[in-house]
Amino acid sequence: SPVREENEDFGAVIFITDVTEKEMAEQMRREFSANVSHELKTPLTSIMGYAEIMNQGIAKTEDVPRFAGKIHFEASRLLALIQDIIRLSRLDEMDMSEAGEPVDLKTLSGQVCSDLKEKARKQKIDLVITGDSLVIQGLRSTLYEMLYNLVDNAIVYNKPQGQVTIATGKDYNVPTVTVSDTGIGIPEEYQDRIFERFYRVDKSHSRETGGTGLGLSIVKHGALVHKASVQLKSTPGEGSTFTIRFDQA
Ligand code: ADP
């Protein structure tokens, strides 16, 4: 806009807005929709295929149980994916100032381990809980989902006879919970990216084991809601350690 005085221009006012953040948010939304559509389409196509063969009566009788099993597996994947998407959108909408309640992270770790005990046993993984009772102010169901996803990953990406340790404690008076495993580890170049929605280091391994690619995004967003941070230390071939620090709890 020109700045005038007595019909004479003597200056200009320039208004500049930085739209980088807005553009990035829009791009992320576009990518997310494209990814969701793709992730939903893959299992649905497979379900349609098997159902059609069975419906037309061209499936051999001995193949029917296997096809039904595949339909069940793909449908479970779809359900897990939709549940994770709902969890993420709830976290997106959550008010950061939600009051929460006193939650003992050690008791919560016990619940998570008990719910994942069967999965760990099948993969011959030892679950260990150490540390003292640690009460923070937080949202119990969100904290449960965060710990569940970390321990679930620590089992899935482990090696046979491996171990998963959940430790609660304080680091310079900051409440922390650490989930460490003796698994395959994560190469340095992927360590930032694995927190992105749908990012997987090994796509086929994650899909085979029923992973949605959203677990760590839920952990990251859950941490944000609690004004906590998530740190990762990992050595390929040796294992990974995820630490949630409740800096401002
Ligand atoms: P997924 O459903 O694929 O497990 P996540 O968001 O939970 O999705 O994790 C993203 C990716 O990060 C995984 O596909 C895997 O490659 C890697 N990852 C997560 N946790 C671990 C771990 N404890 N050890 C090794 N790799 C891991």
Textual characterization of the structure:
This protein is of the alpha+beta class. Helix content is 47%, strand content 22%. The protein contains 6 helices and 9 strands. It has a 5-stranded mixed sheet with strand order 4-6-7-9-8, with helices on one face. It has a two-stranded antiparallel sheet with strand order 1-2. A hairpin with a 2-residue loop joins β6 and β7. α1 runs antiparallel to α2, α2 runs parallel beside α6 and α4 runs antiparallel to α6. It starts with a strand and ends with a strand. The structure holds adenosine-5'-diphosphate (ADP). Adenosine-5'-diphosphate (ADP) binds next to α4 and α6.
Radius of gyration: 24 Å
Low-confidence stretches: none
Number of strand elements:
9
SSE ordering: EEHHEHEEHEEHHEE
Distance between the termini: 48 Å
Main sheet properties: 5 strands, mixed
Mean pLDDT: 93
Estimate percent helicity.
40-55%
- Percent strand: 15-25%
Sheet with most strands: strand arrangement: 4-6-7-9-8
Which structural class matches the secondary elements?
alpha+beta
Shape assignment? globular
Count of DSSP-assigned helices: 6
* Chemical compounds bound to the protein: adenosine-5'-diphosphate
